[in-house]
User: What shape does this take?
Amino acid sequence: MPADERPYRRRVLLNTASTSAATVWSMVVMLVWVPLLLHGLGASAFGVWALLQAFSATNGWLSVAELGIGTSITTFVAERAARDEHDEAAAVGRAGTVVLLVIGVICAIAMVAFGLTAFAGAFHVPHSLRDDLRVAIPFFAVQIVPDLLLKGSTSELEGHQRVDLSRVVDGARRTLVAATTSVVALAGGGLAGVAIASLVATAVAAMFGAALAHRVGGRATARGWTRQLRPVAAYSWRVALVDAQGVLHRSMDRVIVGAAIGPEAVALVEIATQVQNAANAVLAAASYAVISSSAWLRSRGDHASLRELLERGTRYSLLVTWPFAVGIAVLAGPLIHVWVGGRYHDAAGLVAVALVPLVAAPFAVGSNMLRGTGRISRVLWPAVAATTVNLVASIVLVNRYGIVGVFVGTIIGTAVLVPSLGRAVLDEYGVTVREFLGQAVVPALVPNLILFAVALATTALLRGAVVTIAVTAVVGALVYALATLRIGLRHGEARELVGVVRRQPA
Assistant: This one.
């Protein structure tokens, strides 16, 4: 391997590893947080809190208000940093932060107006919870501002190729929010107390993120930041249109079920959605670092490395993501029983259906590369078509088949997305379908088929939730590790990866 490629490769690996570690931690936090919050608030109040989260600026409807500024910051900071234009990179970060601050204030005002006038009626909130909800909504709305500022700080860190620090900030936010809201909920603080605790924790995390971003920027000045507003905005609106599809996809299930059935049904949706989000987080962790890396490579005109990043990055992301989804789907019943209790056993079937859309995982790396290299318009129309089909199908099917209908709607939307998104990715980087399948997909698919067979066999033979989970996890992990080393990784590839990390010749 050429010596001058080693720092780039090492940074990609470390960024991916740190993102993966942060994702594992966030899943641990989620596993502890959800049952504690569910126990502290009760099913109805928990459902209302989940509906409020559908409007959050982190992963709800109002995250669309970020208008793609975060990805734009990452892209332009990475390009300028790759050319050693550190003052220009700092100016991009300042411009993006100012825009996010203005957007945050506007959205907070709008959320208060909507929340106090229409939220309770739209989602059939029980009258016993409405007084508490009226207190919670203003605090929930104010949290939009630090949420968006935090997005600006983490995006700037990622542009400087410090995805590791970005994930530290995000992990700190998740941990603080989970810890404070759980304590308040268990102490009887209700929706209002949980909203206040969440706001305080997010504000602390936002200050931490801003301090880290300033430190990484070094002594660079942000003079002339107003000149950066135009290029940042020019690219961000296209990102915003694509992100809007993702936000709609993530949030529609809770909203549709809440409007059609009510908050208690949303509790089941939220359990399945949290598991789905965990699987998506694993995929994101394995593929997210390519946004800044592809922007860096494009700025240097390294097209060969871009193609390699697509093929190898896709294979690695599938080797990490698909076994997680396979294991959870097969063990959904025992896992739900152990995690939140037998009362919510109906969520197990929803979990298995919710994980089916991960068949689109092979194009996650390519989609993120299109974002990083300024070609996000190629993702836009496939995303619009898929989300539209998903929305219509979910509304129709929930009224006919109940809760599971929204997850089936997502499967139908995914079937629409895969062909067009796959064509866009492969055409952009000059890879044929046969090459992509042979280099990226099949080597990851075979070990997962073996894992699926082993997991089905062990769950059929064993009794008892804890024993089934433990034995299947151990046996499955051993079999999968062996299959991955023999089939998933090319000859000498594991040694090469270790050599890159250790800075030794591969």
Q: What stands out?
A: The CA atoms of residues 76 and 92 lie 7 Å apart.
